[in-house]
Write a structure and sequence with these properties.
There is one protein chain. By secondary structure, this protein is mainly alpha-helical. The protein has six helices and no strands. It has a domain of 98 residues: Four Helix Bundle (Hemerythrin (Met), subunit A). The longest helix has 37 residues.
């Protein structure tokens, strides 16, 4: 595959992703949920299922508090950038301006993902091997449920003939 063909394929993929983002309901986002987000949605339920000790609970709380404001502000900025890209795509902005905004989004997404990953690793160190296995099963189940909900939302948005 030639270099130009690969670049064109990447450009088309990015353009399709952006076009889909504009067409999709506001409930969809560019960011993929992480383990840290899964814990953040209902940490009490997850932590109860793991039967953590008081010491483990305190350590996890400390870890979550350490980077929570940075992660939260990063997510907020991601949402802002997504909206800006949607506005640029639906307007008359030059491709280079849209591409620059998309690159900014990608860079920030990577930063936020790294923070979430590091937070997840720190929490993982606190868990016993059994708790790690249990957590992996919980997350797998939640992600499967999320995919089913998203699939149903997408199917519901398709007009019936």
């Amino acid at each position: 595959m030639s270099r130009n063909h690969r670049q064109f394929s990447r450009y088309i993929s990015a353009a399709l992703a952006l076009a889909l983002a504009i067409a999709m309901p506001a409930t969809y986002t560019f960011t993929q949920p992480s383990l840290a987000q899964d814990l953040g949605e209902a940490p009490g339920k997850v932590l109860q299922q793991l039967n953590l000790s008081n010491e483990q609970l305190q350590q996890i709380k400390t870890i979550r508090e350490r980077n929570s404001s940075e992660i939260r502000s990063g997510r907020q900025r991601l949402r802002q950038l997504q909206q800006e890209i949607q506005n640029l795509m639906s307007g008359t902005a030059p491709s280079e301006q849209v591409r620059a905004k998309f690159n900014e989004l990608q860079s920030l997404r990577q930063e936020v993902s790294k923070l979430q990953f590091e937070q997840m690793l720190a929490m993982r160190e606190i868990l016993t091997p059994q708790q790690r296995t249990q957590l992996a099963e919980i997350v797998k189940q939640r992600r499967g449920n999320r995919r089913n909900r998203q699939k149903n939302l997408m199917l519901d948005s398709i007009p019936q003939s």
